[in-house]
Amino acid sequence: MTTAHSPNAKRALGARAPRYAGSLIALHWLIALGIIGLLAVGFYMVGLPKGLPVKATLINLHKSLGLTVFLLVLLRIVARAALHRPPLPPMPPWQRAAARTTQGLLYVGMVVMPLAGYLGSSFNRYGTRFWGIPLPQWGWDDAHLRELFFGIHEAVAFVVIALIVLHVAGALKHQWLDRDNLLARMLP
């Protein structure tokens, strides 16, 4: 007799596990690639000396890509609310709680991080251009507020990195150790 937590039951469930809607899968991977690119560009550009022309180009790219990913995250939040999400495979309650908490905190980070960056940019004389289009500035040139918001932006970046590591580790644990085929729900 097999139970819901036995390896055979998990494999059988994983083999026929329902998948996310194609739009949610596409948004997931676009956002993931965007965030990885943003983190790479962000950490690289802050290490460049001031006044270097490529730094200004990278900062503007970072802002535009960040706002693009932010809009994709908002679209994904709406799509997740509207579209059916497949149930998680059988797992202990603490794992289910950890998965939901990690995903929830990832969404919070994906909203707070770009908002803090945009607000930080609003408190400087340069503002923000979205792929060349100037956006409204919600502030004035204020070094203290700029540093506050950029500090939040950077701190949330490190939290998001930790959450991504947990998210990926959890998915790989389910795929390789539990063998419940969890990844098949989100693969293109």
Automatic annotation (TrEMBL):
One GO CC annotation: plasma membrane
A GO BP annotation: respiratory electron transport chain
The keyword ATP-binding is annotated on this UniProt entry: no
Membrane-spanning segments: 20-45, 104-121, 148-169
Pfam families: Ni_hydr_CYTB
Residues of the Cytochrome b561 bacterial/Ni-hydrogenase domain: 19-188
Membrane topology designation: Multi-pass membrane protein
Keyword Transmembrane: yes
Cofactors, names only: heme b
Assigned keywords, A-Z: Cell membrane, Electron transport, Heme, Iron, Membrane, Metal-binding, Transmembrane, Transmembrane helix, Transport
Subcellular localization, as worded in the UniProt entry: Cell membrane
Gene Ontology MF: a single term: metal ion binding
InterPro entries named among the record's database cross-references: Cyt_b561_bac/Ni-Hgenase, Cytochrome_b561_oxidase, Di-haem_cyt_TM
Family indicated by similarity: Belongs to the cytochrome b561 family.
Name by which UniProt lists this protein: Cytochrome b
The organism of origin for this protein: Paraburkholderia panacisoli
Lineage: Bacteria, Pseudomonadati, Pseudomonadota, Betaproteobacteria, Burkholderiales
